[in-house]
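Sample A.
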Amino acid sequence: MDAQFAAIAADAAKRYSVSSKAPLDDFLSPKIKTVDELIKQVELQNEQFAEFRAKRHAIFGAMAAALKPIEVIGEIVAGAAEEGFPPAQNVFSAVVYLIKAAKDTSAMYDGIIELLEQLQRKLSPPLREKLTDIMATLFQVLVISTQEVRRGRFKAYFKRLFGVGSPVKEALECLQALTTGEEKLVLAETYGSVSMLHDTTERVENLVSLVNENVRNLRLDHLGQIDLFQRDKLKAILEPSPFAEDFFSAFTKSRIAGTGDWLVQDETLQSWIKGEKQYLWICGSPGTGKSFLTARLVSWGVENLGKMAYFFFRENNPETKSVIQAIRDIAYQMSESDASYAKALMNSLRSTEEIKTVSSAFRRLLIEPFRSPERTTPTYLFLDGIDEAYHEEIDQLLFQLAPGENVTTESASNLFVALVGRSYMTETVTNSLDPQGTGDVFSTIQITTDRSERDVAAYIENGVSQSRILARTNPSFRADVIAAMEKQVDGLFILAKFMLAEVNRKRHPRSIQKSLETFPKEIDGMLLRTIESLSDTISEEEAEDLNEMLRWIVCAEEALSLEQLEAVLILQFGDPPFRLEETLRGQYGCFFELEREDGLTTDDLIKDFERKQRIIRRDTSPAAKSSPDRRISLSEAIETGHALRPAVHQDAFRRLSMSSGASSPHSPTRSIDLAVTSSEMEYRSKKSTTSVSFFHSTVREFFRNFPTNIANASFSPSITFDNVEARLHIVKTCLRIFSDKEWFEKFNLGPGKSAIRQYAAWYWQEHLAALDPAAVEAKDKQALAPQIVAMLIDEPTINAWTFLYLKKNEGLEVLNYANLMGILRWFSDADVAGCLTGPAKDFVLSLVEQPFKISEPIGRQFAKAWLCADFEGYIPTVFCFDIVQSAALMASGYRNSASGKHWLELSLDDRIQKAYEWAGYPETGVWNRRIGSTYLTLGRHDDALKRYNKALEMDQNKLLTYGRIAYCLSKDSRYEDALQMALECVVLEERAATDGKFIADAIQRSKWRLYKDYYLIARCYYHTSQVEESLVYYRKAMDAAAAVKLNPSEQFQSEIGYLETLYNENLHLEMMQIVEQMSFQITKKTKGENRLVEMLLGQANKRLVLDWIPKAAATTGKTEPMLELLEMSIATAHDLRDQVVVLYLRLAYGALCAYGHLTEDATQLFERISLVEYRPRGTIVIRQAHAVSFQRLAALYKRQLLHDGIKSDEAADWIRKLEEVRCQQDQHQSTDTPMNVRGSDINMALIYLGLYQRLLGNKKAADALLKPLVLDSLDLLADSEPENDVYALDNLLWLMTAAGDVDRAKALGQSMRRVNPNASMMTTQSASPTLQRQEPKLPDIQLSDRNCAQCLLNIPCSDDFSICMYCMECFCMRCMNNVIKVSGNSPNVVCRSDHEWFVVPPLNRTLHSGEILEASGIKFFGDWEEELRKEWVAKGN
């Protein structure tokens, strides 16, 4: 038993050391060997606490009774384990930390007393053994907790100790299981009463609840155990998609409040949640609102279930059909809230390739991490729409979930899975999960129309009230319409949607009533009626267009873009129809749904158009025309589609190079000429990013069964569809794109040419595999056969389609096993094989005996590109490797599908070895460099360096090797070493060029390498604080780039780095010089009139465009010409229909107006964006842009309020405006913002309103406004995402400033500064028992220095700066003394001389992770944060 204690305790120490990378030595100081010494130490450390003094006798009594046996056991074991791990001393030290963690909280002391009392039992031999386990486990709980306290992540200090969401829970569960066993022994020995067991268990549960409620300061989340690098690595391995969150957000925002509540209360659901059965099957007919109900369950689960994850399958995209992607997504979601799960993944996963199949993903992500028997907390998974997933993968998932001899699910017994899908899958689910029909495996909830009818009624009522037509009718008519619709739809959401669409197309009450009376009561009948109506109204030409679109949209492997759809119409008919988007949104809106990046629906766009028309009518009215001073703002010009003057840039260029005198705000260059605009509705969606799909999957199914559905129709439709004919048509088109280049090139497809070619390359295999050759006529097969073979063996054709996989680096998908097996089915057809001749026939015949050779020609071609020394040209090494390993391992009998041996389960080293052995090329210097580059790209830097050094040994080619080594070193942040290597590489490259060693293409490759060397040297110089040298090499890189063909990712790389360096060094004039130079450089592309415009378009949502260039222009007097260049860029983006770029460039325009003191223009623009245009939809990028606009508008209102005076007559108007911004942002506050940017969208208007109340002396009112934001920011610090800490801390700085808490604001402001390089370094003597991190956390959290709101320059980290208690802005001391504190401030002075400030000094000492510098000295951030939380929780109570 004694040895057992030593082993258990040693294991706890080992786990501690492994997880923390730190020894336990410091933890054992001071030495504590007896209970008496323990009591003295506890009293010494806690004597200042009043609550402790009041309860110390009870604490010491419980401590002595519980821990005396540990003293005895420790003496016994110490002889064997004293040197490595003295167990008693460790337990005593852990208890010291536990009691100290109570932080003078009375309830927590009571909890500790009761916890210790659980250990006061008679030590019979079996009980003694059990107590040994208990204490070792208790030590583990306490030491892990202590470890995390001292790590210093900005999480709540001791928050949720033993609570849900904390990995300490994992160790606690073990402790609870052991104490339960101990209770049983005690009861048997002492009381002999089973009834006492229940009482004891309840007391333990109450204790845990008490601790959960009162001890809030430790949260061991998954990033408390793994650092940011590991967190990024986990994300890279899992490759989560945005779809789960996007669909949940869309359904949640569209769901009517109160709908779906009945499902939450369902007794079957509640029994599943309680764990009575492991699986839940929720099913229903099409159109019953299953996905909305799933979204309701998820939103309820987020608040009530703790650990949970979800996924929504959709058949219009390969990723949303993929079960593998679903498992990855739910694993990533769980890793964000479950620390022990995240750590288990990090300990077991090495690469994405280990989870490439359903079985491997299920095993590695949902089985192995749950194997620990101590995991008793349930985890809930919701998988919606399983009928829309890949059927083979769903079958595999059900096989994995099913209990049986072949699948181990015992370890996942705490994983509860809810499957949602259509009723027809009930038999599949039953046969898979419960083949014996026991009824003990899963429960079923049937979504019937009678259960959902109330939800449908609410949906109809809301739809009628929002209808542009019906909302204008009288209430009684609307009530009649609602009643009729409820009766007709019979509880089906989809019918309700169709009926609302039908009614909204009517223009007379009588036609609405007639339509309601005759509308079909089932989906197929409704669609037939729609087809009949369209057949009667559309022309023959329109019917042909619609039929062609149906072919592609029904069969598409992913949702087609508007650009791709237009391209297929051109390929079929020679030209596109006029106003395609308008037709899809209007006439065919009953079938199709168009989704834009900005999330604007058809209704939103119509309302925006009507608003634009009102602006045009106003601006062209006689009164407007008669005003000589009438100016058109940029926001109005973009709203109405006005063109910017084509030649405006010429004046802008000229004045960029003039003196810095600012132009008049009323300069003619500030006006924007009107253009003739059409009064006809135009949506102007960006074709490449607007997707077209059916609005519901039942529409797709209707057309797939079209011959059956139309068989008994009473009309002859002009709209037709045949599934086989459609598939064949698509296959022919895809293959012809690559086999008949002359045919393809003759069409004027514009950007759609590359888009449709990309689709054909990605999906020709899927379309061919889905088409049964037996259903195809012989003549069609004979025409296709040579084209199919050419795709597999002809080198130019192979290059034409495989290179398009480079766009997403999807080399592994080129040779997809399932697709190749589908192609083999075609080669087995007699008609196909019989029509071939020559090499094509030989190839097909060879596959009869060796089918795996189907991948060999492609594999050999890329093996040559990968490893052959004589290969001319360059293809990325990992892309080549992915294809070669696919071919090599398929030849070895491995598969990249779920069945058989899966080759991605081999290690990377094994796969690389098998790949180069299969390739068969001799080892050379080139060979080693290519293998090294493969390792480098895959993140294996050490292995890459080994290969590069081996290459040097073999061929001494420093020219081609040193650059690779330098880049590899830079990736490991070894900038000094990388710099020296890169400089030597430049010397070699320039010498070789001078000596004339390069000819033809080799010259271009040399120039490209030289460009990359210059750029790398510039970066390394800057990282080693050699700014001047860095700028020199950035300029060299820019010069070299002009003579090199760069990849899209490399475009403007050197210019951006150069501008960033100049900005960081406050070299604004030099920034504007390079901006001027770029504005004169004519672009080689059609995107923009010059290179500056092209860069602005590509970097529109980056700080360079949003903030840095506007500041540089404003400080150098270039405001007016830069505004005009931005106008030109906006016009270009508008012409390109890129509304995302338009929005961000408008934000940059507004920022420049604000920095240039054109306050009225800036305010008007941000008002338009925030108060008129904003919709709570769109991508994350769109929503972030609107958050920026809200914040900037609020800042402008605040500044004008302070300039007018908080007690002036105008103050009330500015407060009203701030309230409007606050309400608008609150109303549309996004709850699904990604974790890494949470806090960036804080409601600044609310902070300014709190500031206003504080300045008026209304402290309670100010605190009431600020309290929710303070607590939200503290919660962000306690969440699982470290990247949002920068926002949370910055928000706390301004919240404390607004609240008037100078001490805390100053502490944050100073601690978040970079360490002053001019100060003699002082290092804190931390009491932390763990190894300190090498780099301080708090000082490094800001990406750049703060800048002065007056002069707009960055404030060096060696200088003091001031923060205004009124403006809530930072100011350098030069501006404070020479501008702001001077009486009689001009309007352009941001601050005022009668304001109050506090000074933030430089940070002259190193702060370790988890430390903050106050006036009184260093403090643990956790303690500081807990005091802040406690204070603000009490406010208003």
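Sample B, a different protein:
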Amino acid sequence: MPRQALEIGNAPQQRPGGAARAAQAKAAPSSSAGKPLPKMMSQPLFWVLIVAVFIAMVGGLYMRHKLESMERKLTALEADKTQDCQSKCEFDALQGRWQTRTHGHTCWNEELARETCECTGSPNRPADCMPVLPKTSGGKETESRKLGSSAAAEPTLLSDATLDGASLKADAGDAEHVFGDGEGNGNGNRNGNDDADTDRVHVAGTADRSRTHRKNGQALTLDVSTSHGFTPSDTISQFCDGTGLADMHGKAAPEALAGSDAARDLESKILGDVARELETNNVDKMAREIFTFYVCTRWAPDETFWKLAEQELTAQIISSTVEHEKSPGQAIAELYQMYKFVPMLCSNNFDAFGKKDPSDNLYFSQFKKDVTELASWISDSKDSPVSQRLKEIDDIFCGDKPMNACGDLKIQEMLKKLTQWCPSWLCGSGGSTKEEMWAEMEKFFKSFNKQNRPDSDKWDKDFTNWKARFPYHSFIAKPEGWKGSENNSPRSAERFLICFGKRVASELHRRPSGQHILTDQNNIGCHGFWEPDKARDMLQRLLDLWKPPTCQLAEMTYVMKKEIMAKFQQMNERLFDALPSMINDEMLEAELGEFDFQDHLPKPYKIGSVKVDGQVFIDRMRVRASLPGSGSHKLCVIQKQLKHSVECLLEIDGGDTNPDYGRVHIEDNRLYVVWDKDEQQRRKVPMPMGGVKLKVVPQAWTNKNGFSGHVKNLVAGVGHITDKAKEMFSGMFSSKYQNLAGMMSESVSKWAVCPIQSDANLQELDGHLGVEDAAFQDFQKEAYKKWTGFKNKIPGESCVKSSVLGGEFDRANDCEISELMANHVEEYVIRKGTGVMSSDVKEQFVCPIRPPLPPDEQLQILSEKQGTCYLRMTREQQRQHAWHYQGKFPARRQNERKDNTPLSEYELVKLLKVSAGDADSETSFGRYCSLEELKASPRFCRLAKVHNNWPNLAEFTQELATSLSGSLMIGAAAVTSAVTSFQSELHSNMTKASEKAKKVALAVGEQAWDKLTGAGRLLRSSPQWVHQHLGQELPGDKRVTSELEQRLFGSVDNGELLHMMSYQKSVGKTMLSSNAKERFDRYVVSYPCPDFDPAFAFAARKRWSRVVLQMVQEAIRVHKEALNEPSLRLLLRGEGVRFKNTNEQSKDTFYYKSKAGMQWVDPNGQTGHKGEIPDCKKSYQKSPILGDCEPPDVCESTLFGSCRVKTWWSSEGWWPVANSKLVGAVAPLLTTGKVSTGQFYGLEMNLYCAQKNEFESSGPPVKMPSSLKECLEAGVRSNEMHKAREPWKLYFPEEVVVVATFGGIDDRRCLMSEAGRQDEESKKELCASAVEDSELFKHLSNSDMKDGQATFMGAHTGAGFPKGTLEEVVLQPEDVLEALGLMLPSNHGSWV
């Protein structure tokens, strides 16, 4: 039934009583039964009318009966509604206030310490409604308000202003009616005197807790005996001027309403609204309601703000360049123009957890509807009359430029602009003097209100709509005005400000001599000012960021109350941090149509293969073109037919000088190649074609020019934020936000709550008001404080035996770092498909129950566990098992609802250096090997045994610094760890040494540390130093070093690395509640690795890998047929030639010339392998006149110009080595000073080639190849096939590797000259520990025994391991082939 039928106060017409009806019957003419019926009565239409009248009378009687029944029910409920909450809610619903909220629930408010009544549309008790314990027999009922009247009672809505359990008493007769129940939503009956207009407030002292409020002649007594302190709502109820407040809210003036009762109702309702706003929109209560925001719009300096600005000027809170006492209008206009005083209107708050959507019982669904409706209204408002008028007000000052860009005010120009569009009844004629002009301007500003004129209906309606959307007056006071560039201040259309958090931020207070009650308004988390469409977009982005699957709400819920202010700013920054990625996704959606990032993430590998010409090719293999023959090595593979010719679009080079490289692509069981040089278009060229042969090469091989990056696909657009999106973000948002931050910092933002009653006792009022919140304002200057949210054990500290890997790997442990819950904080529904095919689908996600530690802190905790490695997924493994990291895209689903089980194929890593900072800071780590390989082939994981360890720390650091030169990827943390480990080992081995000896052995000089970690390290890593001191004498040396470095070290962003190390398992439901949700544990897997030292492993493997490759290169230089053997055994010894300098003036001196010799050992005879006698011939290609003997490594010229085999050929296979690096490996290069024969060493090196699974824990493989060369060449291809077939795998048992083992030459030998035999010191030095051998130096020439005037004393050959020799090193087949020149070099161009 319509509400007006129930509003008794509207004085409905009275039905005639019984006597009146009788009089009417007498007066009515009676019809005579004897008269014939009139002619009209015989017409059918007449009887139709009669029937219609009869039906109307019956209907009227029925409606009257229903009205009387409802009136009786209303009266009964009115008389009974104070007895229980249910009756009160039924009364409210019948009056039409809540309509459907007919169910009452009595709740206990812990904060207010009183009962409250909550009306809802459901019989179920709300979740936040605490039941009230039954009252005892001695309980005292709250005294009700009474209002007497001789007239009939008139039910009317009082307000929401009765608060804190207080009751109003209105003593004006014997009748008693209830006005409210203390909850702020009660109704009551009252009878007023329309002629009375006094409005007084009396507040009693402590002894007298009653208040008398005279309103329209009625004495309303407020009993506050049950109140718990004087609340802000009490202040509003007693001291605010209701009429003035109604005017501030843009409501109709009292004289425009039907009567004084309606005016009182309006004022009372607004007072109740304001009181409720203060109670519920308060920072003190934000701990449970933090996820909220409000919107403000820059308003005009209307009459309300005019008064507020005058107060601020009077109190010297803000100042103007104009003397406001003489020209207040000009002063306030200057404040407005320069943004020293910014008037604002603000909306109600929009709470993410405010209420649930009835359709799905979800908070976010309702929140989304409310925000979407607001966003649409803001966007549609840009063409409304009020929006246009607001824009025109700003344009008065400086046209389409920002207001503060035009400097001094020019009143004539301003009024001229004003009169162009302002009606004369509003702006007048403009005035002649400046005073009159400013008066007209003041009149115009103050008249920015409802006009209530016949020709202002459209304006009034729109104005009312704006005030309804933005009912709260506030302002921003900034004494110095807008900071930053004038061009960045808001333009006339940029009016909307979006602010996170509740608005109320302090106690109520007022300015000295102020006539408005104020409170601080939160402006910490604001962003803007936005044009309407931009504001709409920002609201939509907010929804995208806050949807439950992003876990934003779930994480931020766990926040301490004292950090609420920081949370506002954090939410704002999160939104802006997300903007580049959101813009990126929006751009992708615009380009691709409907965009779901999940559809474009890398899919698990689908590896294709095809066999062509007897060779198997697999997706993603690297190949190079080969065109054999003597003709052209170039072929056009893509061409375009022109009118008279053919244009080649893509030509590839198949020669050996600079061949083209590409990547295999298998499609429809056909072989294609995407060539590197065609990177932009990436055309698939079918192969084979035109005689081009494809040769498989390792992934690293490129042509001379290289290529700019890796293969591009759509994933690059989804997995990385594009430069264009970043550019848009910087242009659109960054400077705006920075300048707004400058505006808000140290500013004061206030909400003008209400005007004070004209006759209020201001001294008494101040006794109930607080002060401005200094702590809140100080916070605006402070940075954020970090809070982890964990008070007990730190995540990751406690570990248990691995539930998955514990059986096979009993040393593996699970360390929990977070607990997650499905659909936390609530479910999220998304719509899939379009049109009739669309459906609602619940998105599957989990969110942390408590905020996890920031990635850097969590990684730091894990890194502090000494000798511990952690299981980590590589990016390829993440892709294969769909464990993607979305931390860089906070508006996407962050955590998948799935198990992520740790697998033995993942690798172990050791955390080295964790960089503090956000998730984008990097952590460096050492890479050990996969658990799978550690179990199956530990030989290829662990560093081999070190022979002849360094005797002191100084020598160790010297060797380490030399090996690490040129490797900047190895940080100081890894180097320090290596030094510390060696120092600890050295100390444990010196148990019997004296303290002095220990101190000397363990000391590290300042220069040594500088070479390792300081500026000396940077100097020794420069390209010039490396080239000068280390050289690049080996082909592929740079690649081998780089691959070794990448194999042992890595560096990844903190957030992504933690995700790579994280695993997840479902632990089921707790079953503590009927609607329990599935929970997941997130954990890392630890594994002990105390012996893993990545820095030392790199240094040792780098050094001895080079020795191996140089020895093989030297051997093949002399014996090219050596690779045809199944294995290769080489000896390398240091050789010292001793000389004596005779000095007549002082003691004779001795010194050594260091040399080295090598021997290829016959695998059968265990003696020197002489090899095939070379055929030495004369060649005149390089020397046309004298000619050269070739091959030059083993041939030399005689005195007569003929060629012969070098003399050392017959010396049991030993030959002299000229390579200084090899000489330095077994002999001291600097022989001045004190040098002994103990510094000359002898090495035996064995080289094997086989699959990993054919090697046992030590020694040669169980199955030897037919020849090393065949094994190496086949290994390159087979290894590439394995990696292409399963690119996420790290360990392949069938992978072909090259293993070089080292042993020591046991015996030392010596050779004495005649002069040496006469010198006892030389005899002792050279032969005391060696066997004399007269044939020792047959491989040396006579010139090697001479050195100027010095006397040759003899020679000595070394034995035993050099210092720090590894027992074995492992190489790749391509390492050996490239070093020997049997493969095209990999470093033609830049290394990728």
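Observation for Sample B: The longest strand covers residues 1128-1141.
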